Amino acid sequence: MNINLGQLSRTELEVLAKDIKARMVELEKENKERAYTEMLAIAAKYEVSFQAVVDKFGKPTKKSTSKGVPRYANPNDPSQTWTGRGRRPTWLTEAVQSGIPIEVFEVKP
What we know:
Blueprint: H1 10-45, H2 50-57, E1 72-74, E2 77-82, H3 90-97
Antiparallel strand pairs: 1-2
């Protein structure tokens, strides 16, 4: 199939681009379905469940990392806290710039 893009208007090109994107999504879905069906057949051939194979060799799930224990809290809004790592929050920066010592905001254990 040969399409002379130079002869198409902007509107025709946009329609063509939209059709191409839709077809690519459709093809990806078809390929995933085909691959899944083949993987199920291979697992059945070796008399194991597909889920057992995925569990053993699949990518491990990413464990959530702790954000740390809050070291500073906003007395006006206790839900605003800071661990002391990363960028200093605006509420704390503004308070320190106005002359309030940072120690005032420390969370006591």
